Amino acid sequence: MIVExxxxxxxxxxxxxxxxxxxxxxxxxxxxxxxQGPIEVFVHHNTLHAFEDKSFHEAARLASKIxxxxxxxxxxxxxxxxxxxxxxxxxxKAVLADDMVSRADATIDGLGTRFDLRLSMLLYxxxxxxxxxxxxxxxxxxxxxxxxxxxxxxxxxxxxxATQKYVLSSLVRIPxxxxxxxxxxxxxLDEFGHGDPxxxxxRRWEEFTLRYLWQVCDSGIRAASMDEGTxxxxxxxRDALLAATGQDTDRYVHETxxxxxxxxxxxxxxxxxxxxxxxxxxxxxxxxxxxPSLFAESWLHSLPDELKKISQAQMTPLESIDESLTMLGVxxxxxxxxxxxxxxxxxxxxxxxxQLESSATWVDRPIRPGSLMEFLAVRLILDRVAIDYVAREYxxxxxxxxxxxxxxxxxxxxxxxSHFQTTFQIFQVAQSMGWAPQAMGQMSTEDWRxxxxxxxxxxELHRRCIFHEAYEKSYRTDALDALTLHCRTxxxxxxxxxxxxxxxxxxxxxDREESIRRHIEEVDPAAITYGAxxxxxxxxxxxxxxxxxxxxxxxVVVTPKHFVRENVGYTFAGEDRRRAGTRRTLGHLTHQxxxxxxxxGGGALTAIFGSLAAFxxxxxxxxxxxxxxxxxxxxxxxQPPPITxxxxxxxxxxxxxxxxxxxxxxxxxxxxxxxxxxxxGALKNFSRLFVVTGHGSSSTNNPHESAYNCGACAxxxxxxxxxxxxxxANDWRVRAKLLELGLRIPNDTVFLGAYHNTCDDxxxxxxxxxMPSSHFADFEHVKTVVDEARKRNAHERCRRFExxxxxxxxxxxxxxxxxxxxxxxxxxxEYNHATDAMCFVGRRDWSRGLFLDRRTFxxxxxxxxxxxxxxxxxxxxxAAIPVCAGISLEYYFSAVDNGKFGxxxxxxxxxxxxxxxxxxxxxxxxxxxxxxxxxxxxxxxxLFVIETTPDAMRSVMQRHVGIRRLVEGEWVQLALIDAExxxxxxxxxxxxxxxxxxxxxxxxxxQSSDWYxxxxxxxxxATIRKTAIVDRPLIAEAAKxxxxxxxxxx
Length: 1050
Prior knowledge:
It comes from Novipirellula aureliae. By secondary structure, this protein is α/β, with parallel strands linked by helices.
């Protein structure tokens, strides 16, 4: 069997350098694998993380080649948006001009400028296809007899008139003239008959002109000799065999390898353990496939002998890989791409193996280091066996394995005629540009070469890049215009001072919280809302009362050292033990039923009595809301008692999971509360109730549920973080130490933790039993406002759901979203971050009252309370930019090519190994987001609008490599706002440039529903009149007066 590399003798030999180079190649190829870990902890990230050291568009082009994927939407989609005015023609021209810089006005042999040519290629679709398909189009359609429908009637008439005039004037010269162009014209006239062309109908002239144009293009291109030469043999032998025989060796290999990987990585889903799993991936593979079997597929008959040879030679995985590459005839120059392509052929499983090996070591059944190397060794062995089998059976080739690719490619080589494809492309361009055939016939060979080079340089990927820039520019212009005009309204409008807020509430910066914050402010204009990263500065490992162990609740890039435990009150301890025992018993019984139903007897009983299970199943589909209420009531008998408390305070020096080491010291609590309040700028004028609201999501039959939870809590629910920070802020010792730091929280201010379920819009309040009776009336007011906001929020969300009527009332809308979350058949419980487009970092004053359509992450930040080093801004952006960029980019790539970067439709998904999802019973592990999550998403790079100065932003970028890489590489868009002067700066080409507002006014409505009612599509910006605009200096003055009154009272 394959042995560990470390067990081999250390003396050098001539192959050491080759193996070292091979090791480096594999290490580099690993970077291209999907970085998604187990689906239980789904953390959004940049799908093209391996390319972040390059610019966005450069990375897009490279990824298109490596992954064989689309980094942009299709040209057809962009042109549809051009027709619908989603892309403005002015923006398209501006982007094209910027892309061409100073060469836009250069002409092409008098036919027009390069700018006009490229604009025409953008505005009018160019059909491209394999040669066989194009020949069919020409033979079966009117492509050579009728102008393209996109060509305007004016251009068509001009070309026909010029051609008719030229042909009629040339008739007298044809008998005596020489030259290829004249002979072409004479031959074409003979083909059209001997009738007098002067009497031809317009229809006949049109056909003649297009045939003439085709001949001129064909002869000009062939004379220019711009062919690409012989097509290169594909790097992988599989591709050559597929082209020559139609047999896909990956299909053979993957059917075997997927089944084995699913069993090897299984985390408890399978009934039986894989034999010899502890021996590693290769050892277990040899145990399963190393012995001959009468039931093995015919192509696998030679596999046991191959495995036996490798085991007897005691090869390391690296040596086996080297041998396979040599046998397959892969030259040294192609090894890097070959290995990358081989790993990516089953990238989901390969990526998961690497994640379990390197990162997700916390899983129940970890795997040992070196498993990915063993996977690659097994993969290449199977490739060798499959290629040899297909070559013998279908190619009838009996030579060496290293010669299979060349032999197969020779058989499939002459499939494309690049001349023909180029001719068809130039033929289409000529019609759109209005080039007459006689004018093109006068072009020299060098002119033809220049024209062909220009068309090829502006290929489909380049055109889609230009379209995409214009697509983003349209939204960016509208967004920056809206912020400019909104700030002007605030700065020029009346000021309405508030003596003290009715209540304050801080939510996660999540874009889904934007709407509920807006509705809270509409219902109660005296309320103040904030946004912060949803872990609320509480970095912890958390264990709930019903949890089996601790789980991290913090950003995934942070490793928590502190532990917090939820305990049931002592009064209910006995009841909790009984319920926990009941849960274990039910779990054991459920597992036994599941296991025994797989036996012969169990299967028979299941067939007999299984129909009884149809009744609850049908009820869950037809009446999901009622069924869920019944299930919740029944579940109360096994759930922990309702009265619990957090074990927050630590008495020992070192944090840990043991009793006495759980929690934080008082000084650590002070640091947490101080950081949160400083980050959001809530340092004065506290209300009597200050609510901290975490968020998450729950839905039925949703393997991707973790992706709907709080990204700042590593794909988990943020309720415990909100509860913890509220409890810390209520501690009188914490407040005393905060006062020493200059932060005074009034004695009558009570912090309250809450949890918002973004799927069913429910709200859970924590520790109400600890709230003083003096604040009951305050809480009732807050609850009334929030309940109304929940209904309005559900109403706004429902406009996006096709199954929800547009005339629902807010109460009916709330019932609808509650039902969706419990519907077993629902593939769209909520749309999560779909439609996200912007992140605003600054004071809420400048975005309050602005309809942002649930597309904006809102992070509170007050530059006035920051220090000269911008420490607060650096801390906020260190979390906000990578997290929001990761969310945006994952949605972007899953939307532009869901088949390659996403996970396809949710409907055929099945759980595999408790680690991910497959399509059907056998497929690659599907990473990324499923189709229904992104179907309404507009794929754009997120636009960050930050309230700060250019110098401050440059300082942050210099100190944070990740932020600098994202901004300078244009993975995100960046603008800065000086709200008090209503000016914005946009970052482009390494510098900040003033934004020129193109709009003169914003629509104004009384409330959000006036703007969105009756609409399902994306909406523009609008000002909500009803929301009060407050002036910060007046708030500060009111806070000062309130503080003085409190001191006098004391």
